[in-house]
Specification:
The complex is a heterodimer. In chain A, strands 3-2-4-7-1-8-11-10-9 form a 9-stranded mixed sheet, sandwiched between helices. In chain A, strands 15-16-17-19-18 form a 5-stranded mixed barrel. In chain A, strand 2, helix 2 and strand 3 form a beta-alpha-beta unit. Chain A is α+β, with helices and mostly antiparallel strands. Chain A folds into 3 domains: 341 residues, Peroxisomal Thiolase, Chain A, domain 1; 48 residues, no CATH class; 94 residues, no CATH class. Helices cover 29% and strands 21% of the residues of chain A. Chain B is mostly helical. Chain B has a single domain, classed as Orthogonal Bundle (Non-ribosomal Peptide Synthetase Peptidyl Carrier Protein, Chain A). In chain B, helix 1 packs across helix 3. Classes of the chains: A alpha+beta, B mainly alpha. At the A-B interface, helix 4 of A face helix 1, helix 3 and helix 4 of B.
Chain lengths: 599, 79
């Protein structure tokens, strides 16, 4: 059996400018709904935390970053967003800076690096942030309520939307394309190299065992219990018997439950800079150069698309950089279908063709083996927050290349790492990273306990306090600016060292837009009379509604601008689904003091 | 297959897929509320039903079952 090749080859050349990764950040991969500490986390909070951790890791601040990319596989599912890049910047102190959203399903995180590196290599920017976020488990409960209200992503809804990845002219109608990928790589490999069904099954079980073993040593991983421990708990002395039991059934032609992704919530971010900039600015950690990235896209009805696409992206990456397969020290494969590890490892020349399966059976690909793969636990154990997973792999690669992976540190400090991205009907990528030893620093872990960057459910806290009659903001400890509504970082000076404060409730409005047919929603008629305005409360400006403004008094108010206003907490939303929010009303007592003759 | 035998088989599959002791399960057990777990558990459960009973229960049908008893009924309709 010959799986064939991609027909059309692009031409790619070395980058015009050397680009390096200078910072990485990652949230835990988690089921946010299952802990009170994380239940209610929003897009901005997940992305913002990862972005701020990446900046802290680089030793830079938001003002140093020129542009950011935002990746998410399904913002419509997760939060009913269409342009989610715009909604996150305030959380990490980059309000107003340029950004682009992109979406390539499970390959998003790998192409996130491609986007950022191209932007710097072109010479347009010195420093770029690229992050990805995904809610694979907790989606918005009701698009008409603030998004901290989330619920489990139902299986039927997930499966329905997964089909949106695929072509709807021909592929979905022809049925096989969206589902053949679950088993095609394993079956093709088995037939190509004459393996028995038991041999390929053993190899895939070996991958699952190694992933769990790796994840058990990773503080950010979703599944930290090894299969060995789980087997013992369920009365099995032999883990391999457990892995072939009813506790781990085959759910595809070959694929077992242990070989399938664990979809979850999470975010990760990376900061890249020109290597020249990194050298000149004494960044905190050893810069990791991005030597090259190959990419391909094979529509879902392309036969053997994972195998063909992987061969092509690896070819591009090696030709672009001159790197040889024998130079690869560490490999990552986006393995939401676990057989991806085998395909990626052999295509990259990391494991010998037709023999690679034995390495998995023998346990040689775990973090403590001689051919480590997915030292974070991959998609089956670290978890799969779809878009964010690729950046989480880059995070892990960088930590390993710095030598800071602790218990799961691979035996030989990796100098060159290859990451194979895959996903979304399907996009593919091959990333080559290398440490320039001339720029090696004394890398040390950042003390998270001492860091001002915290992941907390700020949105939930804000609304819960509104229910108690309190309006909260967050005050920057460095410059004194108050972010209201509250965000993680200060958009004036960029500091993440913030503290909660109660707002005064007093402000000033500075414009009047009267409601009309176009902008007055029927459900807000009970608030009439009001105007749309800009209100400054304690130094923080927001668009807001101000009651007490009419067509009749508008001109008089314009003449006295700014007009004093006071905050008012009201309930909005349908019966049984209400939530509190803040509007304003004219502060007539303060306004009276402004009348001519009283100033 | 007798209804009682099917009940016991499906209860056993749920026990394996969700890794819950059999004695904690009954036909009245609410799959979402009482069992929780990840969506992958449900995929495993449906896979077990297919592997052991040769009944291909569509995932959306299984996901729509409120209790284990509802699931047994859905399987029975396809046997």
């Amino acid at each position: 059996m010959n799986p064939g090749k991609v027909e059309n080859h692009g031409t790619i050349r070395p980058y015009a400018k050397s680009v390096s990764i200078i910072g990485v950040g990652c949230t835990p991969f988690m089921f946010t709904l299952e802990s009170d500490e994380t239940n209610g986390l929003t897009e901005g909070e997940l992305y913002g935390y990862a972005a701020l951790k990446a900046m802290e890791d680089a030793g830079i601040e938001p003002k140093d970053v020129d542009f950011y990319f935002h990746g998410e596989a399904s913002p419509l599912n997760a939060s009913k967003y269409i342009t989610p890049n715009m909604q996150v910047a305030n959380w990490f102190g980059m309000k107003g800076k340029g950004s682009i959203h992109h979406s390539e399903a499970c390959c998003t995180g790998y192409l996130a690096l491609d986007e950022a590196v191209n932007a710097v290599a072109s010479g347009k920017y010195d420093v770029v942030l690229s992050g990805c976020v995904e809610f694979g488990d907790a989606i918005v409960e009701d698009p008409k309520k603030p998004q901290y209200n989330r619920m489990k992503f139902p299986m039927d809804a997930f499966l329905e939307s997964t089909a949106w990845i695929y072509d709807n002219a021909y592929t979905r109608a022809m049925i096989a394309g969206p589902v053949i990928a679950f088993d095609d790589a394993a079956i093709t490999y088995q037939r190509q190299y004459g393996l028995t069904e038991d041999q390929i099954d053993s190899a895939m079980i070996g991958m699952a065992l190694a992933n769990r073993k790796n994840a058990s040593k990773h503080p950010l991983a979703l599944m930290k219990v090894t299969y060995e421990d789980q087997a013992k708990q369920l009365g099995f002395d032999d883990v391999n018997a457990f892995m072939r039991s009813q506790f781990n059934p085959k759910m595809g032609h070959m694929l077992r439950v242990s070989g399938m992704e664990q979809k979850c919530d999470g975010a990760a971010a990376v900061i890249v800079a020109s290597t020249e900039w990194a050298r000149a600015h004494n960044v905190r950690h050893t810069p990791i150069e991005v030597l090259g990235i190959g990419s391909a896209a094979c529509e879902g009805n392309t036969p053997h698309l994972e195998i063909r696409g992987t061969e092509e992206v690896v070819r591009q990456a090696y030709e672009m950089t001159g790197v040889k397969p024998e130079e690869i020290d560490l490999l990552f494969a986006n393995d939401f279908i676990i057989s991806s590890q085998l395909i990626a490892a052999e295509s990259a020349g990391y494991l010998p063709r037709g023999e690679g399966w034995k390495y998995f059976v023998e346990g040689r690909t775990a973090y403590d083996g001689d051919k480590p793969i997915n030292t974070n636990g991959g998609r089956t154990a670290f978890g799969h927050a779809h878009a964010a997973s690729g950046v989480a792999d880059i995070y892990e690669a960088v930590i390993q290349m710095r030598g800071l992976a602790g218990e799961r540190q691979v035996k030989k400090l990796p100098k060159t790492t290859l990451l194979r991205g895959f996903g979304g009907g399907q996009n593919l990528a091959a990333i080559l990273l290398r440490t320039d030893e001339s720029m090696r620093k004394e890398d040390t872990l950042i003390d998270d306990a001492a860091s001002p960057v915290r992941m907390e459910t700020a949105v939930r806290k804000y609304y819960e306090n509104l229910q108690q009659g309190k309006i909260l903001g967050r005050k920057c400890k460095r410059c004194g600016h108050i972010e209201w509504p509250p965000f993680y970082a200060c958009n004036t000076c960029g500091s993440a060292d913030m503290e909660w404060v109660e707002m005064s409730g007093k402000g000033e409005m500075s414009t009047i837009i009267l409601p009309a047919v176009l902008n007055a929603k029927p459900e807000n008629m009970d608030l009439m009379p009001y105007a749309f305005s800009i209100v400054n409360m304690d130094g923080s400006e927001q668009n807001a509604i101000v009651q007490g403004v009419t067509k009749e008094n508008a001109e008089e108010l314009w003449a006295q601008m700014p007009i004093p206003v006071r905050a008012k907490i009201i309930e909005r939303g349908a019966e049984g689904k209400t939530y509190p929010t803040v509007i304003f009303e004219i502060d007539t007592e303060e306004l009276a003091k402004k009348k001519p003759g009283k100033q | 297959m007798e209804k009682q035998e099917l009940d016991q088989k499906v209860l056993g599959f749920v026990s394996s897929a969700y890794k819950k002791p059999l004695e904690e399960l009954s036909l009245e057990t609410n799959i979402k509320k009482d069992l929780g777990g990840t969506s992958l558990f449900m995929v495993g459960l449906v896979s077990l039903i297919e592997n052991e009973l040769d009944v291909l229960l569509p995932l959306p049908t299984a996901a729509g079952c409120k209790t284990i008893g509802d699931l047994v009924d859905a399987v029975a309709r396809l046997m």
